[in-house]
Amino acid sequence: MITGHAGLVLGVADIQEARRFVDDFGLPLRHADAETVSFELEEGSTVFLRHQDDPLLPPPLGAAASGVREIIWGVDTREALNALAASISQDVAVTRDADGSFGFVDPSGIATRLRLFHRKPVLNAPEPLNAPDAVRRLGKHRRWRKRCYPKVIQHVVYVVDDALEAARFYIHRLGFKLSDISDGVGYFLRAPGISEHHSIFFLQKGAVPGADSPRPDHVSFGVEDIDEMMVGANYMDRRGWKKSMGPGRHRIGSALFYYFHTPFGIEFEYDTDNDHLDEHWQPLIWEPRFGMLAWIAGDMPPFWRQEPDWNVRYVPADHPVFVPYETVAPASDAQG
Ligand SMILES: [Fe+2]
């Protein structure tokens, strides 16, 4: 099964500027040469930077050459890897690389790779929170940090032409689980081998301001707690990088968030205190404004400023996202 993100390949216009941003954001450098810079997170996943015109890169999703050019999913066994490649080859062309990984462009146009990957455990020890008469931390203060060091790739968000169809492909061909639906806006899915609320979100083109055409939107990296997130935000501010939005807390998935503009088009997000789900979870359909924000500090974006409807309901069993994904017959075979 797919156990999470093994890596990302980013196309960038200026490798040194992109490297400076990712360094400041806190990803540990692994390797740098003339063509590529790579960062390896504690979980073992890798973020590669390559020049956006590098012929080795797959085609971009949308018009912009910069941003996420390939998403790499980790698979736990060789047998599972081969089975997944067989599953998706019903719908799209799949190529096998010398290293045994499989590459394809999904039906939404997202360049994707599947490879064997064994995620390493990460060392986190979030400190207990105190409240009046509910003392969890006595006689010691919270840790002091200078920097934020994300340890995992948490999720990736793409604007796509048809978020429902994108979700169906991932559920029925790749085994993803539906976590929640933002009504009319998009689908939150988690890889089957992890419990984090979502590992990918498909945002429906045209559903919200700024989502006008297919493109990679942002990548989220998991940090330990709100203190690490805000120390990171202060550090990024001192280094001259601009925030997009935050801090705040989503209601869907419960995560605390802080988004930054990157020099390569997409946004990078710090993310912490997510919901974790298991097989008992029943997916919900959320009114979008209600689901998007539990709260946000200060600068509320105009679209989200409007008071939300407190409207949440369970996804019905006959929702179209649960209709099995079937290969469309070639036109020559179609009747009539
Ligand atoms: Fe996010």
Automatic annotation (TrEMBL):
Pfam families reported for this sequence: Glyoxalase
Domain VOC: from-to ranges: 152-273
Top-level lineage group: Bacteria
Name of protein: Glyoxalase
The organism of origin for this protein: Rhizorhabdus dicambivorans
